[in-house]
Design brief:
Strand content: 5-15%
Shape: elongated
Helix content: 25-40%
Distance between the termini: 48 Å
Order of helices and strands: HHHHHHHHHHEEEEEEEEEEEHEEHEE
Radius of gyration: 30 Å
Largest sheet: 10 strands, antiparallel
Number of helices: 12
Length: about 450
């Protein structure tokens, strides 16, 4: 149950309990703006972030005032603003904690506690505010000292409606467009309040060259001389194209933190996977429960792999396929799995299916490659038009030893080259540490 006291006294009490070294128990007034670096001394804040903190503290203060006046229209507008902002961020600053998050919690927690499930996560609900409240009161990032009986009871599995994920790029473009429109509107309202004096205009005219034909001729001559002097620079040679190789595919060890059924597709799972990405990388988010940088991945494995086998396990993921939206959820990688080879025309998704297992001691993000094909860097994003994945995937297979491997004889553009070079046509899928990736029981299977 959330504390039902007034927002300011609730916040003051919360700060005393949680950060006694930063907030004096003798303080009677809150200086929230200067509290952040004291509460979170291990973080540094830029001028832009400090300005954001100040802005959000003002917004939260406005929400508190609107709630006190029971101004429903103002409250709804501020809640919508907060919900939209948090749709692409873990905290108000993105992933970094600030006192603005705690202040928002103090004001919003009693409100969220009273909301019905539909108001929380229904089609018109405030999903992201509810998620933020749960994260602040339970996350180690804040380490708030809130007794369990004072916390807002939130069932994270009770989601009545799954909103379409907000694309950060689209959100950025939307804000940029709104700003441009506002500037244009302001410009249109600008009124000219005076005209230059006649004498000024006259003086300006008299300063022009006496001959109206000499100036254009001189300018034309000067332009021609500059053009003649400027040497034509040779175009830089394009960089050599990377040789065709399965190493263009970004294969990594992934750690599935959790997986759930896709809310809008019976055949899909939605997994949260740590792929070793740096914080802030494209197509990633920060996991609220662990603080790790993760990717959301949709896999057509529902009915083929038990959901319990998708929890807390290591897998091999393809990380540079172009992200696709699958029934409203953006998928930013692909989990590798093996299945029996089938004849043309047969159902290739009939199963059985086995996930590819990296070595038990492999770390999330560790690069995985086929022996004999480790040179070169993977493409940042595979261009669908070049069909790199489609070209090399037919060579992905499993051996009689249940090892995942690449058989170059199944890839026409490589078969002749490998034969001429005397290379082993089959290379095992290994990690940088030398461990081999395997499957449970499928021999001679296709891997995709």
């Amino acid at each position: 149950m959330a504390t039902a006291s007034a927002p300011e006294s609730s916040l003051l009490s919360l700060l005393y309990r949680s950060y006694p070294a930063a907030i004096s128990p003798d303080a009677t007034e809150l200086d929230l703006f200067h509290a952040t670096p004291k509460i979170f001394p291990h973080n540094s804040y830029s001028e832009a972030e400090e300005a954001d903190i100040k802005q959000w503290l003002g917004t939260i203060s406005g929400l508190s005032a609107a709630l006190g006046k029971d101004d429903k229209q103002a409250v709804a507008a501020i809640l919508a603003n907060l919900n939209t902002h948090l749709a692409t961020r873990t905290t108000f600053l993105g992933g970094k904690p600030s006192v603005a998050d705690i202040a928002a919690y103090a004001v919003l927690a009693p409100l969220v506690e009273k909301w019905t499930p539909e108001e929380r996560t229904g089609e018109n609900g405030y999903h992201h505010i509810v998620r933020h409240i749960d994260f602040v009161q339970n996350g180690s990032l804040f380490s708030l000292k809130i007794p369990d009986e004072e916390k807002v009871a939130i069932d994270v599995d009770d989601v009545r409606f799954v909103p379409k994920p907000v694309d950060p790029k689209e959100e950025k473009e939307r804000k940029k467009k709104e700003k441009a429109e506002a500037q244009a509107a302001a410009k249109e309202k600008t009124v000219v309040v005076g005209q230059p004096k006649a004498e000024t205009v006259k003086d300006t005219v008299h300063e022009a060259p006496e001959s109206t034909t000499e100036a254009p001729a001189a300018a034309k001559k000067e332009k021609k001389e500059k053009k003649e002097k400027k040497e034509k620079q040779p175009k830089a040679a394009p960089p050599p194209a990377a040789p065709p190789s399965p190493s263009l595919i970004d294969l990594r060890v992934g750690h599935i933190l959790r997986a759930i059924n896709h809310p809008n597709a019976d055949s899909l799972y939605v997994s949260t996977i740590d792929c070793g990405d740096a914080p802030g990388s494209e197509n990633t988010t920060q996991d609220e429960a662990t603080g790790k940088t993760v990717r959301t991945v949709c896999s057509g494995l529902n009915g083929l792999v038990p959901l319990e086998e998708m929890q807390g396990r290591k897998v091999v993921v393809v990380c540079n396929l172009k992200p696709v939206t699958m029934r409203g959820i953006k998928s930013a990688a692909m989990v590798l799995a093996a299945s029996p080879r089938v004849a043309e025309g047969e159902d290739s998704h009939a199963g059985p299916v086995e996930l590819v297992n990296p070595p038990a001691d492999a770390q999330a993000g560790e690069r995985v490659f086929f022996e004999g094909w480790s040179e070169g860097e993977p493409e940042k994003v595979l261009n669908p038009k070049k069909k790199i994945w489609e070209t090399f995937q037919p060579g992905f297979t499993t051996t009689d030893n249940l090892e995942v491997a690449f058989d170059s004889t199944q890839v026409p553009i490589l078969a002749e080259e490998v034969s001429a070079a005397g290379k082993n046509p089959v290379g095992r899928l290994v990690t940088q540490a030398g461990g081999v990736c395997t499957v449970k029981s499928l021999k001679g299977a296709t891997v995709r």
